[in-house]
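Propose amino acids for all 435 sites.
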């Protein structure tokens, strides 16, 4: 009996040790390589992330992690290694090896660990990407057996893959190949996806929504002694709205086209910083007009539209499209943006027109909205300068989930103002249908 108990105890202890070792192994999982593919009709661009300690071993070089990998000799050694360990086969079975466009050291989060990586931008000049392609890679597994490579499609216009990467699969030493299937790719599928992407870009862009709302707040108002003190007629207000939206559309369409074609820089940190400043300026303008009267609204809409357009173009520019695909993507993306903006204007402006009939109520709506926009823009400005999220911006990312409730409050405010206006008109004997 005692011997049996001792055996059970030993088995139990051994099981605990095995479980602990397994958990530790999972907690210290080796860093993996990652490939992100940008597929066009002319070829494939790849962003490859290799853990520095693994790529060093595969290349048989020893460099400190704080030393850059841009050196000509190291880059030449990397190119030679890729020529024999990384290629894409087209549907005819031809091997296409990559050309290094750029490479540098960086950091990437993996499993909650900030891992030193070699990031390399590669180009595979395929004559055609139609049909089936096969990716072969043993860049690291040729020297390290226990290494995983995660392959994702970052963008493929004709497959409708845009924005968020889609995981294709995992390459390991026993399975060094991965099939990329594109038989269902079509121009129409790309147009449809890009149109939806344009709508989503506005619908989920909290900063853009807030900017647009602050811009529309002044549309029903007129200047009285240098202040927002009067109200335009409904017809005048609608005309002002048309002018504002048209001016903003003109501005961002110009820079969207120019940035996508590569004539001006697309996106980037400085654009995001300036966008935060445009929100702050528009919030101030909603409370205190600029010195150059009503024309100031149109000037703000055009100039700020130019700035926002460069940010819109960032995703398009990264896709590397050209020719027919570029023209179709640009048209579909722009149309999606404009339609979503028009839908938002159609939902919000009738309510603002009704509330603006009660100028004292409208004043508080403008003041509260402007103060909120100022605080939010300050959070975005700080985040974009420091390139680190803060608690305010993390909260603002969730704001879109409560947007329907905020819109409900706006409806209640408009309904209350309409009832007050109607009651006054009936009591004074004025036809309630007149403006």
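Proposal:
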């Amino acid at each position: 009996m005692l011997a049996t108990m001792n055996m059970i105890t030993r088995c139990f202890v051994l099981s605990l040790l095995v479980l602990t070792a397994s958990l530790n192994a999972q907690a210290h999982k080796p860093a993996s390589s990652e490939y992100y593919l940008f597929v066009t009709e002319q070829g494939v661009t790849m962003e490859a992330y290799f853990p520095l300690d693994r790529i060093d071993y595969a290349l048989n070089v020893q460099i400190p992690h704080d030393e850059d990998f841009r050196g000509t000799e190291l880059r030449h050694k990397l190119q030679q290694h890729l020529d024999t360990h990384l290629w894409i086969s087209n549907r005819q079975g031809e091997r296409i090896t990559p050309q290094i466009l750029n490479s540098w050291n960086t950091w990437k989060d993996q499993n909650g660990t900030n891992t030193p990586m070699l990031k390399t931008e590669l180009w595979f000049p395929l004559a055609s990407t139609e049909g089936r392609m096969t990716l072969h890679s043993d860049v690291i597994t040729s020297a390290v057996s226990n290494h995983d490579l995660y392959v994702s499609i970052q963008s493929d216009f004709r497959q409708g893959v845009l924005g968020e990467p889609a995981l294709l699969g995992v390459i390991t030493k026993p399975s060094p190949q991965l099939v990329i299937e594109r038989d269902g790719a079509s121009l129409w599928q790309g147009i449809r996806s890009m149109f939806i992407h344009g709508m989503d870009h506005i619908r989920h862009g909290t900063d853009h929504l807030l900017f647009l709302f602050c811009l529309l707040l002044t549309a029903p108002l007129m200047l009285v002694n240098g202040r927002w003190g009067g109200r335009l007629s409904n017809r005048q207000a609608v005309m002002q709205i048309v002018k504002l939206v048209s001016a903003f559309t003109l501005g961002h369409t110009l820079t969207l086209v120019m940035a996508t074609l590569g004539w001006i820089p697309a996106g980037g940190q400085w654009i995001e910083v300036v966008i935060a400043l445009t929100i702050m300026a528009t919030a101030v303008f909603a409370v205190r007009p600029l010195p150059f009267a009503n024309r100031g609204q149109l000037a703000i809409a055009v100039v700020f539209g130019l700035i926002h357009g460069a940010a819109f173009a960032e995703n398009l520019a990264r896709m590397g499209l050209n020719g027919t695909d570029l023209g179709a993507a640009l048209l579909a993306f722009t149309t999606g943006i404009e339609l979503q903006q028009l839908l938002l204007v159609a939902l919000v402006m009738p309510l603002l027109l009704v509330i603006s009939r009660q100028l004292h109520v409208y004043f508080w709506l403008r003041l509260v909205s402007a103060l909120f926009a100022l605080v939010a823009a300050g959070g975005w400005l700080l985040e974009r300068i420091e390139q680190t999220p803060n608690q305010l911006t993390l909260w603002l990312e969730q704001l879109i989930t409560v947007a329907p409730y905020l819109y409900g409050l706006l409806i209640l405010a408009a309904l209350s103002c309409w009832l007050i206006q109607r009651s006054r008109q009936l009591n004074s004997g004025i036809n309630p249908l007149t403006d």
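The chain has two domains: 30-185, 188-428. The first helix runs from residue 2 to 27.
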